[in-house]
Each structure stands twice: as C-alpha cells, then as structure tokens.
Input
Amino acid sequence: MTRRPSAMATALAAALAVVGPASAETAAAASTDADKTITVARLPLSMYSINAAFVEIVAEEEGFSVTYLDGVHPDLFPALANGEADILTSIWLPYGHDTYWEAHKDEIITLGAIFQNGVSFFVVPDYVDESVQSVNDLADPEMAERFQKVIPSIHRGTSMYDKSVAVVEQYGLDAVGFEVEAGTVDSWNAALGEAIENRAWIVFPLWEPQYMNEAFDVRPLVEPQGVFGGREATFLAANRAWARSADPALLSALSRINVSLEDLNRLDYQVNVEGMAPRAAVEAYLEARPGLLERWTD
Output
C-alpha cells in the first residue's frame, strides 16, 4: 500500500520549492551571523561601560560582534542566568555581588578578573575635621550634627546601596539621623561635587576604581567591622550554558583581560571629566601599550 503524503508534508515541500537554494543560503548566513554575535549585559555606570569596551574590542579581534543589554543589577543578573545575555561586564566577588552570585551560581560562571583589589568605602571631603577617621566617629551625636544626614546612593539592588544601608544599621548611624537615599547614577554623580562646592559635610559611598578618587580631595573612612568587605576581584561573568558551547579562543581571550586599578581610575576620569567616549578611551589606552591586545587575543 502506498502512503500518501500528509497535507503538512505537501505544504512544506511546496514552501521549500519556492524558497530555493538562494534563500536557504541566506538563512544559513543569518544563522552564522547570530552565532558570531554575543550579547553583553552592561550596568549603568561608566566603569562598566569601560569594561564593556574592552570586551567589545577583544571580541571583534576574535571575529565576533557585540550587542548590549542595558539595565540595573536586579534585572541583569537574572538575564545572564536565563541566557538572555551571554556576558556580564562585572561581578564583584567575594563581597560586592555575593547575594547575586549565591542566587545564580548554578547558571553562571566567572571568567578572568578584569581587575583586582577593588574596594568599597565611605568617604568624607578632606576639609571635614581630621578627627573623623572612622565610620565609628560618625555615630557621635555632636559630630553627626555637623553632617548632612542623607547619604546619596544609586538605585536599590546595587552593592553600593545594600552595603551602605547595612553599614548605617550596623554602626547605629540611623540613631543619629543618617539615612541612605537611593537615586539615579546622575544624581549620585552630582551629589559629591555639589557638597564640596558648598563645603558641606557629606558622607559619600564610593569604591575604587572610580574617577571621583582622582577628581576630588576625599578621605576614605576606616570601617573596622568589615561590612563592606575587603579588597576583592571583579570578574567577567558568563552564562554557563553559553560558555559550554562558546568559541574556546573567544573565552580564552576574554579571560585574559586585566587592567590595573590606577589605569581604570584614569580611564574613568577621562570618560567623566575629560568627556571621552568609553570606547575611544579604551582604544587610546591600548594604542599606548603596543602588544597588549595581541597578548590577550593570541
């Protein structure tokens, strides 16, 4: 008995006949292009845009193009875990992003450390009385009276915001009126300069590498209980499933990207103060260091 083709099979055969070899080649090319594109999750801070520029340049050297998924921490870590993004520009470990790592460590992996010895802290302007050297000193009611009580931060869900709130609670700073206020990156960026212009006493959360360490005269405060954590590394992170099938040469090259704190502070200064685009700043950095990009991508 001869089996007649189903209606679905007949329709499929007709469609293929219409599509023809040229369209099939186009589809194959589109698939190849997709395979040569990586999606990079980028957080809304200049430092992460600088890291992303390093990733983009290295990826291009390996024959890949980059598209970006921009967003905030609570959105981008899950996006990396579920495969919406392939790479995340920075994950601070073991302290800064420990909660995100614990939540998603089965779905993501770390690649190489883009930089090492990063650290978070509170600072005060240098004109603040020299007796203020530690976070403990802020808990003194008479000293606290001289400070503005709002500690500006960026959005909720960031290490900066969460750790700052924890420091305020741990040291009893809330009892003398201090509170952490979540804001935008732009409002946080402006707050320190405005306070210094008015010679206001401000407690400001900061980290290194960050351009404000070079742009302003500020004094880091000792934080003896270690709520912020100590010095740590900042890694590129990748979706675990994507990394299993990714080009080994690409993964190897990305894992070799490493920049000093001093150089990253300077790059961040060039972007925020001198007005350079992150990609242009990174290109100039690499051009001034012949052979560095080749060492990463060989």
Summary: The chain is about 45% helix and 20% strand. The CA atoms of residues 154 and 186 lie 9 Å apart. Strands lie at 37-42, 65-70, 87-93, 108-125, 150-153, 179-182, 204-208, 218-220, 232-239. The first strand starts at residue 37 and ends at 42.
